[in-house]
């Protein structure tokens, strides 16, 4: 159903980049363009050319009207809070929101739901969507069910928004490698059409009571972490997005501005029980565990392996660079629910810890806006947090 070929290419590339960064060979500036690899090493900060976004100021978001206590400038000698960003692709499943909403309220967490726009479109209205390069009415992940299902979905998404959770985008048709033309082949114009349709579905749902202010949709994760970023980013920026969370980093690193967007990469981490590196996302972990086959009998096992991974990654970041830990999952019951259970258990134990804040992407950007840019630059120069 989901293919990750391009994602693993991205992993290899990210690994190369990250290894170079660890060696101190690269300029730790805000742009991590692949082009840096072609420069002689070691290198001075490169002069900004017309094509470089290095000189552009970071994109900003409005500050909250009633900031929580942790939303303030770090004092001299003080460490940043340890942020944990729980984010859920698809974000349409009622049984999952039914568990996440009370749990997050209990532990003071805000999460980010990355909504697939097609889940706002009833099956009978499927032709309203034409995936760029695809037939009208076709999406890789289906549509929103009956009109009553969509109405109900709008209700519980409204509950999530009212509780302070963030809604971003997982785009619409979810065309991964093999479902061609997949998003990795799209050009800017195709990304524009995809995002136009996402916002049109939001707008239509608003007519049916959806309380999502489109201005608060500020970022997203691409299907299967795929995309030609040089093509995709201009469309994202053009639609007012200020962050992306689809790239992969080796270890946990601070967000940086890439091509005019805040990039919150998905960390590739060590899974202690397997003694190997995996992108810390449910599907990737499942694939590493057993090739992503349904084996409900091993659910408890898998849950523990993933939970131990989360714990050690959190510890490495907490004791290291304090970079935000991005935990990306789907609202799925893969492997007998092992991944949902591990993420929920981790949320329960980690969000209430001292110096720890379970926040949305926007909240972390708001926090970064309050900090001395020198401090942020210093944090970004620290070695990635590695759980070994
Ligand atoms: Zn997805």
From TrEMBL:
InterPro entries cross-referenced by the UniProt entry: CE4, Glyco_hydro/deAcase_b/a-brl
Region listing for Disordered, in residue ranges: 31-62
N-terminal signal peptide: 1-21
Residue ranges of the TM segments: none
Compositional bias per record (Low complexity), positions renumbered to this chain: 44-55
Keywords: Signal
Name of the protein: Polysaccharide deacetylase
């Amino acid at each position: 159903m989901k293919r990750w070929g391009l994602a693993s290419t991205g992993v290899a590339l990210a690994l190369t980049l990250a290894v170079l960064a660890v060696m101190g060979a690269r300029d730790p500036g805000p742009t991590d363009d692949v082009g840096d690899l072609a420069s002689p090493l070691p290198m001075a900060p490169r002069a900004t050319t017309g094509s470089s976004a290095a000189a552009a100021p970071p994109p900003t978001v409005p500050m909250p009207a009633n900031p929580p206590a942790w939303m303030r400038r770090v004092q001299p000698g003080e460490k940043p809070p340890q942020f944990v960003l729980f984010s859920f692709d698809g974000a349409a499943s009622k049984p999952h929101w039914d568990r996440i909403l009370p749990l997050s309220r209990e532990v003071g967490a805000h999460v980010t739901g990355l909504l697939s726009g097609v889940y706002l479109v009833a099956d009978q209205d499927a032709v309203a969507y034409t995936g760029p390069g695809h037939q009208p009415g076709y999406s890789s992940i289906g549509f929103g069910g009956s009109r009553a299902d969509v109405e109900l979905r709008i209700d519980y998404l409204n509950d999530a928004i009212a509780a302070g959770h963030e809604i971003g985008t997982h785009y619409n048709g979810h065309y991964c490698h093999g479902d061609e033309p997949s998003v990795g082949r799209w050009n800017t114009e195709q990304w524009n059409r995809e995002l136009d349709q996402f916002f049109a579905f939001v707008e239509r749902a608003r007519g049916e009571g959806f309380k999502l202010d489109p201005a608060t949709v500020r970022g997203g994760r691409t299907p299967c972490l795929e995309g030609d970023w040089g093509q995709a980013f201009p469309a994202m920026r053009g639609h007012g997005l200020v962050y992306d969370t689809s790239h992969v980093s080796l270890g946990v690193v601070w967000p940086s501005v890439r091509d005019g967007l805040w990039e919150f990469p998905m960390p590739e981490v060590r899974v202690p029980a397997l003694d190997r590196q995996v992108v810390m996302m449910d599907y990737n972990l499942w694939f590493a565990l057993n090739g992503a086959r349904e084996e409900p009998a091993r659910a408890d096992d898998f849950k523990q392996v993933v939970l131990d991974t989360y714990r050690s990654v959190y510890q490495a970041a907490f004791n290291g660079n304090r970079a935000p830990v991005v935990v990306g999952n789907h609202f799925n019951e893969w492997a007998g629910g092992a991944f949902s259970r591990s993420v929920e258990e981790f949320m329960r134990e980690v969000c209430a810890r001292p110096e720890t804040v379970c926040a949305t992407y926007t909240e972390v950007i708001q926090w970064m806006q309050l900090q001395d840019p020198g401090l942020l630059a210093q944090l970004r120069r620290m070695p990635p947090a590695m759980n070994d």
